[in-house]
Amino acid sequence: MPKYDVILKGGTILDPANGCEEVADLAIVAGKIERVCPELDPARASEVVDVEGKWVMPGQIDTHAHVAGLARNWDPAIGYGMLARAGTTTVLDMGGSGPTLIDGIKRRGAGLNVAGVFALIPGATIPSDEPSAPAIKDIVLGALRQGCLGVKLLGGYHPFSPETTSNIIRACNEQQAYVGFHLGTTESGSHLGGLREVPKLVGDGRLHVCHVNSYCRGLVADAPAECDEALSILESMRGQLNSEAYHAVPNGTSGRCDKDGAVMADVPRNCLRLRGYSADIDGMRRAIMDGYASVVAQKGDEVVYVKRADALKIFDETRTNVGMSFPVNLPDSAFRLVTAKNADGDFIVDAVSTDGGSHPRNVAIQSTMALVQFGALSPLEMATKLSWNPSRMLGLLNKGHFSPGADADVTVLDPAKNAPAMSLVAGKPIMVDGRSVGSGGTLLVTREGERVAEASGLPFETVDLSKSKLYA
Ligand SMILES: [Zn+2]
Question: Which residue, of 135, 264, 273, 457, has the fewest CB within 10 Å?
């Protein structure tokens, strides 16, 4: 009888939690890590995978992606396959709903572990612009009961007043629900000004600050100074915040204009202003024809950026209600934010995310690998940013490390190609050589979401957010 289901043989194990960076074999039994050992007998395994020359790290956990909502002219669930191909094994969807999450996993799931937060969109997902405190309490509980880990505030698109924002954060904290915030209130915006508001909004509470890089685009001050200030605000609230930043240059936003031709959301208005375009439909059309603004469209199993005349055609056909992208994220800001450490040597921004999924910018792994090649991060630091810290942020205590008994979620990286080569979830391959080979998915819910998860028929796991870095 074979003792092990799978041995990953001869790779360099990168397990920051256990301080392990060495060439060794990794054995998997029944979907769990059995052991890491310098030399295991291949005859004792049902399957042996040669990973010599590769990096073997705990499966990548993407703490900010989009697979369950917000998309206009494409199917967001296509993002599951896109993430799997990029090496992701666990994803936090930053703004959909329980039903869209479950539906998407069933239709287009690619074998990932999936958690989501409920997008607060007045007039669409919630009735009121400024819900009362009791209404907020019910909204948060409703989010948990529909299978989400908590809620997402979309300050760059649907900002609330500072008071309502504070009330939402507090309600989440009281129920120990996850709370992600794309910064900005009616008094600030989706820029450094939104981050300056955070200490007052949060008080002594807890919050996930979304995509820190997007507030360091040089809109309020010069970008390096914005990074310094952002880092000092995050550090001043140490222990209260989860944070991530993504590395892709293109952002993701909406092209939507109102009946008078004004661009509706703060994020695209800022993108247009950054390059001197007017924040209206004419400015948007010119930005598209100049190649500055791209339109996002589905092409087979992928989502792609479309430019110039082809983009304008889609923009007009959809009457501006289309996903857009601008190359506004500065690599210099991304570099500063990903590498910055505090006096104790801990990273100030916890994780590298993609803000991708069904947006074509799932580059977290390859860009972080490139930083290792560049000498800016060590291999263990890469694994910390891509897996260990994210696992703590979400309270996924069985993930992010290779201790015996941990979930056998693994991402194998090929440093020679600067790309992910294979990934496993619970010991089963979901990606091989860049092809997605999994289906379905495991839903991650809180206790309040167990009933809906059970009814969905999907495999699920219960997360105890009181054990997450956000609340522990
Ligand atoms: Zn996002």
Answer: 457
Amino acid 70: pLDDT = 63
Question: Whole domain around residue 404: which residue ranges?
Answer: 4-57+399-440
Residue where one domain finishes, among candidates 267, 300, 326: 326
* 154 and 65 within one domain: yes
* Spacing, Cα 54 to ligand 1 middle (Å): 31
pLDDT tens-digit profile of 254-282?
Answer: 999 999 999 999 999 999 999 999 999 99
What spacing in Å lies between the alpha carbon of 442 and ligand 1's midpoint?
21
Of 326, 345, 360, which residue is a domain's last? 326
Model-wide pTM > 0.85: yes
Which tokens in the block code for residue 446? Answer: 């809180």
Ligand 1 centre to CA of 349 (Å) is: 16
Kindly state the tokens that stand for 342.
Answer: 């505090």
Ligand 1: distance of its center to the CA of 65 in Å?
6
Rounded distance from Cα 28 to ligand 1 centre (Å): 34
pLDDT band at 73 (very low <50, low <70, confident <90, very high): confident
Residues 370 and 460 in one domain: yes
For every residue of 440-471, DSSP letters joined together read: EEEEEE-GGGHHHHHHHTS-EEE--GGGSTTT
pLDDT, position 71:
62
| Gap between the terminal Cα atoms of the chain | 43
* Co-location of 92 and 229 in the same domain: yes
Helix axes 223-236, 192-202, angle to 10 degrees: 10
Q: What is the dihedral of CA 378, 379, 381, 384, to 10 degrees?
A: 180
Domain co-membership, 302 together with 418: no
* Same domain (yes/no): 128, 205: yes
Q: For position 175, what pLDDT does the model report?
A: 98
How many whole angstroms from 208 Cα to the centroid of ligand 1?
12
What's the average model confidence in pLDDT over 353-378?
A: 97
Distance from the CA of 94 to the center of ligand 1, in angstroms?
Answer: 6
Residues 373 and 418 sit within 8 Å (Cβ to Cβ): yes
Which DSSP helix (H) or strand (E) runs through 268? helix 266-274
What is d(CA 365, CA 387) in angstroms, rounded to the nearest whole number?
Answer: 10
